[in-house]
Design brief:
The chain is mainly alpha-helical and 481 residues long. Helix content is 65%, strand content 0%. The N and C termini lie far apart (56 Å).
Length: 481
């Protein structure tokens, strides 16, 4: 079904999307061309180009089209000069690296944004990582520098971005866009249609970085603010309902990585990994029980177009709400209002660890709860000592623990092998590691930290391509080189 470009409900979503991504666009443009004036011109032009296309496209395709529009600006494909390893790269490899570190795109999406094949993108990224300034420390320093530019952008720069954004939106349709710029939307059904689609986009287009801590690049996609009063159907279909409702787990979610590490270090591994199956939602809205239809009424029209995971999530939220007494419902409604009052970047920052928490098995979550209780019972000096032990390894090693106690422990010896690896490739590499014999795994754990990032990327590619029977020999040969 093609979007209705004249539908005013798309304008709040466009404003919210640009508000969430514009700082990353600015940092990308500035570092890509090395000149603030050229970067400003390129980003302002990209806003207009993107909005001219996005009004006729489904929301799910907006992120790629934004980066495509930005990369199409001529000032961004010129040499950036000298002065830093990033500036010394050719425009293509530099864009490939920034798409990974700033935009947070995996190989497939980055190659689509650049308009090249996956192989061509990987070659450009390999060339960037081969620069002598981009060893492990150099890459980490660059990552932190880029993140600081995003987080610490001056107020004047943020205001300038807001001005460009508003001008670009108004240029599409002065009358309709002017109604969309405020944070409130008059009609409940229109708000919920946008919110339901935004929730789906957040679930599908998180760019697979939920396992990383907030210091790593994350895609910020805002949600449209709710009406002043929140009816039951608004509450139940709120995109962040599950996170706000899980107040008792907030501390566990915040410290998920360190608690996973502690659970793996101090608890016996569980005998199995069982994930309870939630109640499946029907494909037809009319098949829901009448009380649930009332709670989910705002999603009625969009229900057939939602994917299975989103329908199941909405049903889970309705079940949770129905089971709460009146006092708890009032408290949850107030927490949702407070949540929506947070800034878009702050909401996005808090979503990242919760997405990682949701992906864990019930067994992993149980282990983390036990570890948290044990940690709380320790004297303050011991708790501080454990925190310092967890913080000592490199950030990429810490990031693996966002996968939970089981996977974190399994992958910790190979953390350097997973650094800067596209999320879509991780399952295949994990399977390769599991198929290696103990001797080959030990050799690989010794080899991986010795390699430069460029050679490590080549080793990953060769391991994935090699037949299972030849992988042990491949690792042994590389270890002797």
């Amino acid at each position: 079904m093609s979007p209705d470009a004249s539908n005013p409900s798309r304008r709040p979503a466009l404003v919210a999307f640009l508000r969430g991504i514009e700082l990353r666009g600015w940092v990308f443009a500035w570092n890509q061309c090395g000149d603030e004036a050229r970067a400003e011109h390129a980003l302002a032009s990209a806003f207009h180009d993107f909005l001219g296309q996005a009004k006729d496209l489904p929301l799910a395709s907006w992120p790629i089209h934004f980066w495509t529009s930005l990369l199409a600006q001529a000032p961004l494909m010129t040499p950036a000069g000298l002065g830093s390893p990033l500036a010394e790269l050719a425009p293509g490899p530099r864009a490939a690296l920034l798409l990974r570190l700033v935009a947070g795109l995996d190989v497939t999406h980055a190659s689509e944004a650049l308009g090249v094949s996956d192989a061509a993108y990987e070659k450009a990224l390999h060339r960037a990582l081969a620069h002598p300034g981009f060893d492990a420390d150099g890459l980490q320093s660059l990552r932190e520098q880029l993140q600081a530019q995003i987080n610490d952008a001056p107020a004047a720069q943020r205001q300038l971005l807001a001005t460009w954004r508003d001008e670009a939106v108004l240029a599409i349709d002065d009358v309709v866009a002017a109604e969309a710029l405020p944070r409130t939307v008059g009609r409940m059904r229109r708000w919920m249609a946008v919110a339901a689609v935004l929730a789906l986009a957040v679930a599908v287009l998180g760019y697979q970085f939920a396992m990383r801590p907030p210091a790593h690049p994350v895609q910020v996609i805002d949600t449209v603010a709710p009406p002043p009063t929140m009816s039951e159907t608004i509450v139940v279909t709120h995109p962040d309902y599950l996170q706000v409702a899980a107040q008792d787990d907030a501390a566990l979610v915040r410290d998920l990585a360190s608690l996973s590490w502690l659970a793996a270090a101090t608890l016996q591994p569980p005998t199995d990994q069982v994930q309870s199956a939630p109640r499946a939602a029907p494909a037809q809205f009319g098949a829901l029980a009448p009380p649930l239809q009332g709670l989910l009424d705002s999603a009625r029209d969009a229900w057939p177009e939602l994917d299975v995971a989103t329908r199941d999530m909405l049903l889970r939220q309705a079940d949770d709400w129905a089971a709460r007494p009146a006092a708890q419902r009032d408290q949850l409604r107030q927490r949702l209002l407070a949540w929506d009052a947070l800034s878009a970047p702050e909401r996005a920052r808090q979503r990242t660890p919760f997405l990682a928490w949701q992906r864990l098995s019930d067994t992993d979550r149980g282990q983390i709860r036990i570890a948290a209780n044990r940690l709380a019972g320790l004297p303050a000096p011991e708790r501080q000592s454990l925190r310092e032990q967890f913080a000592a390894p490199p950030a990429d090693t810490q990031a693996l623990w966002w996968l939970g106690p089981a996977l974190g422990q399994e992958l910790a010896p190979f953390s350097s092998l997973f650094a800067f690896m596209p999320e879509s490739d991780r399952p295949a590499l994990l399977q390769v590691l599991r198929e290696l014999d103990d001797s080959s795994r030990a050799n690989l754990a010794t080899l991986a930290p010795r390699l430069t990032e460029a050679r490590r990327q080549g080793l990953r590619r060769d391991l994935l391509a090699a037949p299972a029977a030849g992988r042990g020999r491949l690792v042994s040969e590389r270890l002797l080189q």
